[in-house]
Amino acid sequence: MRRKSSVGTCCGGGCVTIVLLVLVVWLHNSAPPVVKVPPRVLPSPNAFDTFITATKQLVDDKKISAALSPSKKDVPVSLEEKRKLVEENRQALATFRQGLNYEYMDVSPRSLFTQFPYLAGYRNLARVLSLESSINAEEHKPAAAVNSALDAMHLGVKVPRGTILIGELVGIACEAIGRKPLQKAVDQLSASEAKAAVNRLEKILSEKTTFADTLTEEKYMTINGLVEIFRDERNAGSLFGQTGVQDSSTMMMRAYLLLHSKQSVINNYAAYMDENIKMHKDAFPGPCGEMKPPKDPFLSIICPVFSQADFKDQETRAFDGLLLMQLALHAYNLDHHAYPASLNELVGPYVKQVPADPFALHGTLLYINKGATYVLYSVGPDGKDDRGKAIDDPSKIKDGIDRLRYYVDGQSKGDIVAGINVQ
After folding, report:
1. What CA–CA distance (Å, rounded) separates 233 from 249?
2. What is the pLDDT of residue 1?
3. DSSP per-residue letters across 14-59
4. Is residue 378 a contact partner of residue 352, using CB atoms and an 8 Å limit?
């Protein structure tokens, strides 16, 4: 009897083992991930519902946008046309103002396929409020002008709650739309009106969410999005920013998931986001430095760029704090016929506290008394105290618009000075 080849037996057993290992790895990597995303706690009534109704009541959306931010093609809107536009939107403003009495929480599904058309409506609400503010100012009603502008800022503060980066950025835009006419009205206020504006602005700013909150919501939305992708690979194009072009995205994902489990992808993403969320919580309300890029090559493709939104959040907090102190300084000057020696003299009678400088590692906004005037500033994106030397870049002047030279961006050098620099 011929003996079986031991080599052949060994080889056969080894192949079976390899096949079994591959099968086990494939089954492990193919297993659906276990995900726990906590539900939002929705207030009742929810200002979200009221604001949505208000956006649907807006009249002449295109004209609203053109009236506040005209392009070269737009015919300038006269004061009478602005008045008419505001009057046509009285019902929308009344509905919106009712919503300001309620807590706000975005209710949009945490899905890759969620659309946010109402965010454009929010911007137009802020624009109508800004128009109303400017009209009140021209009619010599500064207190009414300030309250209209504060309504727009209040909208901007509420909008980011419960939503992702896009909602955060729209909220920032609404705040900027409201802040502009308010800054122009400060010097027209009486001392009592300025104090009332300070009190209301402090209450509004106390409702602000943190950037860590926005990152947390972004985390939950993307985790749900990953589950959607793993459930139906035809959705892969959406994850890679290629809606309608799924083939290459699907192949890329399939190749990656041959060696990595779906659960590990979600776990790695959650760990990456948690690290950055903690960094922002620990640093708040100061700068936290650059967000760390994900180590996972797959995540480096799907993760959005947070740095610009992070900067805009810090910038907005700086401009909010400067505006608050401008109001307080104006009230103090009217009461005492002089400006205070330091901002600390305002604490108590005028403000609850001097706002922290979001661009400084430690400390508050800075101030220099110059007798009949003052310099109020943040150290700005470079984190360096230039003793109130404003950010000024003449190369940014375009089409004769001089204000652009004082525009602040992440690479600006110098200080953000109240009354000079713009967002």
Report:
1. 9
2. 46
3. HHHHHHHHHHHHHHHHHSPPP---PPP---SSBHHHHHHHHHHT--
4. no
Range name among 97-101, 190-194, 276-280 with the lowest pLDDT average: 276-280
Under DSSP, the state recorded for 240 is T
d(CA 342, CA 293): 41
* Residue spans per domain, the chain: 43-334
For the chain, what percent of residues have pLDDT higher than 70? 82
Label residue 339 by pLDDT band (50, 70, 90): very high
Q: Which two tokens stand for residue 31?
A: 């297993």
Query: To which H or E segment does residue 169 belong?
Result: helix 165-185
- C-beta separation of 421 from 391 below 8 A: yes
Helix (H) or strand (E) holding 377: strand 374-378
What's the gap between Cα 237 and its chain centre?
26
Cis peptide before 109 (omega within 30 of 0): no
Tell me how far apart the alpha carbons of residues 193 and 214 are, in angstroms, rounded to a whole number. 34
Contact (CB, 8 A) for 128 and 58 = yes
Q: What is the DSSP string of 270-332?
A: HHHHHHHHHHHHHHTTS---SPPPPSSHHHHHHS---HHHHHHHHHHHHHHHHHHHHHHHHHH
CB 418 within 8 A of CB 326: yes
Whether the pTM exceeds 0.90: the reply is no
Q: Within a 10 A sphere around the Cβ of 110, how many other Cβ atoms?
A: 22
Q: Residue 151 above 90 pLDDT? A: yes
Q: Which of 374, 382, 372, 369 is nearest to 415 (CA)?
A: 382
Q: What is the pLDDT of residues 259-285, one digit of tens each?
A: 778 888 888 889 999 998 999 988 887
List beta partners, residue 367: 376
Residue with tokens 């015919």: 75
Mean pLDDT across the chain, nearest whole number? 86
Coil, strand, or helix at residue 152?
helix
**32: region left, alpha or beta (phi > 0 left; psi from -120 to 50 alpha):** beta
